[in-house]
């Protein structure tokens, strides 16, 4: 999940400006629709990648940065009682909350790449990235909460739910493959029954002929 800033291709001045703008918090964008759209697209892409990650790998084993231990330790030292399974936006966005979050975030300036870059954060960790369940947050705030959710087992619900759906799909696919085989078996069985019926009728005819022959033999005697 660590962001990569290296590239083999030269970056134009325009792209560098966009990259710089995207590293700023959302409130710094003003009303520039191009910047807002570019930031929203990048944030959504990041959200999709992260959600796929916690759906396919047990979140308790994930490492999001090289300093996960430090982030988690500092986070729980300052926000010891913060409820993270279902977040209260006021605990993140109110003026009093910002006063507490600001020094925490600044501790990771120069330690976590793009620490103040805008990201999407889920309010209810058992649910996905829907409009009602998403708020904007700086990257270090996202990392602190998601690392805690992973380590404390709250994101396990997403992983378990995804694996359950995969199991159901595999079951349906297996059942569909079995149907043609069953039809073939039924066809073979019905063919066997027909053959048995024909054989039975043949035996009856032979017995009838033998009976007639016996009667004729008796007459001759």
| Residues in helices, as a percent range | 55-70%
Shape: elongated
Instruction: Name the average pLDDT.
Output: 77
* SS field, number of helical segments: 7
The counted number of beta strands is 2
User: Strand share of the residues?
Assistant: under 5%
Radius of gyration from CA coordinates? 35 Å
User: Within the largest sheet, what's the order of strands?
Assistant: 1-2
Outline the biggest β-sheet. 2 strands, antiparallel
Cα(first) to Cα(last) distance is 104 Å
Low-confidence stretches: 3-24, 213-221
Computed structural class: mainly alpha
Encode the helix/strand succession as letters.
Answer: HHHHHEEHH
Set down the secondary structure blueprint.
Blueprint: H1 13-22, H2 33-56, H3 68-78, H4 90-93, H5 95-106, E1 118-122, E2 134-138, H6 139-151, H7 156-220
Antiparallel strand pairs: 1-2
Helix pairs in contact: 2-7, 3-6
Overview of the structural elements:
It is a single chain. The protein has 221 residues and is mainly alpha-helical. The protein is built from seven helices and two strands; from the N terminus they run H-H-H-H-H-E-E-H-H. A two-stranded antiparallel ribbon has the order 1-2. Helix 2 (33-56) packs across helix 7 and helix 3 packs across helix 6. It starts with 12 loop residues before the first helix and ends with a helix. The model is unreliable at 3-24 and 213-221 (pLDDT under 50).
């Amino acid at each position: 999940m660590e962001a990569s800033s290296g590239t083999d291709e030269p970056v134009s001045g325009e792209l560098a400006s966009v990259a710089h703008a995207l590293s700023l918090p959302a409130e710094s964008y003003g009303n520039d629709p191009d910047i807002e759209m570019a930031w929203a697209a990048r944030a959504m892409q990041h959200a999709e990648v992260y959600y796929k990650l916690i759906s396919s790998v047990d979140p308790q084993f994930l490492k999001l940065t090289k300093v996960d231990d430090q982030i988690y330790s500092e986070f729980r030292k300052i926000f010891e009682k913060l409820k993270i399974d279902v977040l209260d936006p006021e605990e993140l966005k109110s003026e009093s909350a910002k006063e507490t979050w600001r020094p925490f975030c600044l501790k990771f300036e120069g330690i976590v790449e793009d620490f103040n870059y805008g990201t999407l954060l889920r309010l209810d960790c058992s649910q996905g990235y829907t409009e009602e369940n998403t708020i904007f947050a700086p990257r270090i705030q996202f990392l602190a909460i998601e690392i805690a959710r992973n380590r404390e087992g709250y994101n396990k619900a997403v992983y378990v739910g995804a694996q359950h759906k995969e199991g159901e799909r595999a079951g349906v696919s297996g059942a569909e493959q079995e149907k043609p085989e069953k039809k073939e078996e039924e066809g073979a069985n019905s063919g066997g029954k027909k053959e048995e019926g024909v054989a039975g009728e043949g035996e009856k005819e032979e017995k009838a002929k033998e009976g007639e022959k016996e009667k004729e033999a008796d007459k001759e005697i």
